[in-house]
Amino acid sequence: MQFMLLFSRQGKLRLQKWYVPLCDKEKKKITRELLQTVLARKPKMCSFLEWRDLKVVYKRYASLYFCCAIENQDNELITLEIIHRYVELLDKYFGSVCELDIIFNFEKAYFILDEFLLGGEAQETSKKNVLKAIEQADLLQEPRHEYFNVPVY
Amino acid sequence: MLQHSYTHTAMSPSVPLQEMIRAIRSARTQCEERGVIQRECAAIRAQFRQADNGGRSHNLAKLLYVHMLGYPAHFGQMECVRMIASSRYSEKRVGYLGAMMLLDEKQDASLLITNSIKNDLSHSNQYVQSLALCTLACMGSAEMCRDLAPEIDRLLRASNSYIKKKAALCAVHIVRKVHELGELFAPAARSLLSEKNHGVLHGAVVLITELCERSSESLERFRKTVPDLVQIMKGLVISGYSPEHDVAGISDPFLQVRLLRLLRILGRNNETASDAMNDLLAQVATNTDSTKTVGNAVLYETVLTVLDIKSESGLRVLAVNILGRFLLNNDRNIRYIAMTSLQKIVGTDHNAVQRHRGTIVDCLKDQDASVKRRALDLSLALVSASNIRSMMKELLLFLSSCPPELRSQAANGIFTAAERYAPSKRWHIDTILHVLITAGGDVRDETVPNLIQLITNTSELHCYTVHKLYRALLSDISQQSLVQVACWCIGEYGDLLLRGDCQEVEPMQVCEDDVLDALETVLQSHMSSTATRGFALTATMKLSTRITDNVDRIRSIVSIYGSCIDLELQQRAVEYNALFKKYDHMRAAVLERMPVIERNSSGLINGDPTGEPVKEVQPSKVKTEVSLPLPQAADQTCDLLDLLSSSEQQPQSPPAAGSSILTQPLGTDCSAGRDLLDLLGGLEPTPPPTAVTVYEKDGVTLTIVCEKQSDSAMTVTLTGFNSSDCDVSSFTLQAAVPKSVQLHMKAPSGDSLPAGGAAKVTQVVLLNNPNKVNLKMRIRVSYSCRGSTVQETVQVDSFPGL
């Protein structure tokens, strides 16, 4: 996978994970163009499109588009499964996840993604193991008592 | 705010971050938002400068959020470096995240974290190690990779599964950045295959795939692992339900897909490896549940593998059938995938794909443009002589309603298909006209001369063609290519138009004024390009010898344009005027009917591949579109049959007109009318060449006509004729000449000679005799008649006309 973008129907970027080295300007350009292309597509259309020299796989979950750019040898259908798995992980972690969760806890969304994919490839194929790892890592977070409003387990 | 029930996850939300996010979101205008952001950034900057206050991770997180909104955040780069070096996990975590977001390998600051990463790779806490591995795999530069590769290799060998799986993928990134380091990881990768942990296995397979793709030595070495891979795969496919890895009944589809992909690479071009995986692939193909996407994902990868390795034919058929089932799937994604795959094999397994033509053609009507594009590509590849009529109907229908980005491809594809498989000339002309009317603006430039040549060559349809074109012109003059061809035809065959006795179209009374009106409309219309107006003007001029009453009108049109602002038109008009005045005695000769234009070779030669590559002429190969039938068993006794000498032929360089495929007999450019006046210089009557019969048996005759082209080159036209009362089929000619003579046989016009001389077969042979040896030619004639094959060889010693 070269990159993954999460964005809303209004074109607001909610998460961007880049696995290829590009400068900020390039990233912005790609993001802008790709968002436009995907948002212009009608609901019943194919989840795959050819864009520049890449294959783009996207799927909409409620108000969020999950969009991945993969290489020619990559399997589009399994990429859809990867997207789905990520959504499931978010859902399990946040408990019935919605866009607001990802906005207000964007760093968590990244942490979860980084426990699932590494360098653009899936690192753990068991849902349970990914969630367990996140859980354990969260426990290491040093709490700030002033900002406590939930108990730490 | 958000209230979630925290059951087992220890999620401590970053409240400072959330407060800021709320503040930003409540801004009502872009300007207000900018204001909030500026304030926040100022605060963050201030915080960065302060000593450690325990809130650093929150600050950096805020900055990262601001960065995601698109605002500059480079002043946070050094903070990331500092945070990564912190001993607090929360700070490291956000620091590394920041590094991945703000520092790419192009930034100098990225090098500063190399040391931290190195330290963290050996940290006692695996979650810290994990952060380092993740960051290195995400944005590690080549230099960093070189530095840290030994560390990664160590982790690959001696750590727990959690770390091993990450180290494997980190190694993948390193190999992508620094190819030579692949060697380093190969041994470790091999041993990882014996692990049980799925994450580790997955990482190992991805790593091995990367190594094999990069180096052929690795590929050779890892081929030995095929039996192990097959075992692992079998375990996944046959094993019982494993809740941890199950997705809709498929056990670890992610791992299965990667295994299949690796097997594909290992089995490619290798019989032994392919054999070893044959059974497994058959098993996966038959047993995988295809009701959900996940099953189809595995089947898809299986099909790709089967089609790419040296699989048994039975397995191949199974694979193509799976694709066929995919084509009928309700899910549009699956149909799209199927067509992409079929496109890859339409060359090699053409017949298998043909079986699904109906479904593919239906996909032309799909709503989705990507699906349409795939369907178009495939449909064009599937056109053949037997299905041309029905396919063309569908393609023309598609053309009339297809999305604009596909029109050019569709139009040109249709032309090529029509060129190759036209069942009749009339059909061919009709098809081209249809395309020009529907999509004239999207066709290639050489369509106009191509069509003109086609029309001139089809003398029996001149009347029909000019009528159709005239009608088309009356209804619409916006499509330039169509208008150009129409003008040319009207100019050329205007007399036939006026005579109005064409059988094949509805009767239409056309008088001279009507025709001139039509041409004048084109001349005056703002829609007409300069080239088009040139066509119209020349056509008008040509009509002066084909009509009787209105020559004065033509004279006046021509003289008006003598002062036209457009230089091209003005020049033409002045010249035509001169033709009227000073050279009136030559006018009839100059403007007479065009001779049949010699075809250089099939229209494909223009360098435009139609999906199949046009092979270069190499010493031992021949251009694919020119059929050069070489006899398989050379006759040893006869040294004239040194057919490989024909391999020294040079591609026929078209005279005068660069890459244009048209060669006028008098060697001028054919943009109609432009160089008409050049004919004034070269016009000398040549006697019609005599045809000599060289072969005659049972009513089947072969005649040759020779024409000298230059000092050493000549064309020999072989014509086969059948005056007997039984049909002749598979009529082929082979020719051999002495060693130093160069021979180039063009494609024959066909291979069947129906009884009673209804049609003949012509084939043009180009000879070049630079050494001026005594020219002889052996011709082998073979054909089938009344069920039996006839083969005869004749020798031609004298070539009339030389």
Automatic annotation (TrEMBL), chain A:
Residues 1-140 form the AP complex mu/sigma subunit domain. GO terms for molecular function: clathrin adaptor activity. PROSITE patterns: CLAT_ADAPTOR_S. Keywords: Coated pit, Cytoplasmic vesicle, Golgi apparatus, Membrane, Protein transport, Transport. Subunit of clathrin-associated adaptor protein complex 1 that plays a role in protein sorting in the late-Golgi/trans-Golgi network (TGN) and/or endosomes. The AP complexes mediate both the recruitment of clathrin to membranes and the recognition of sorting signals within the cytosolic tails of transmembrane cargo molecules. Adaptor protein complex 1 (AP-1) is a heterotetramer composed of two large adaptins (gamma-type subunit AP1G1 and beta-type subunit AP1B1), a medium adaptin (mu-type subunit AP1M1 or AP1M2) and a small adaptin (sigma-type subunit AP1S1 or AP1S2 or AP1S3). Binds to MUC1. This is AP complex subunit sigma. It comes from Gouania willdenowi. The gene is LOC114462591.
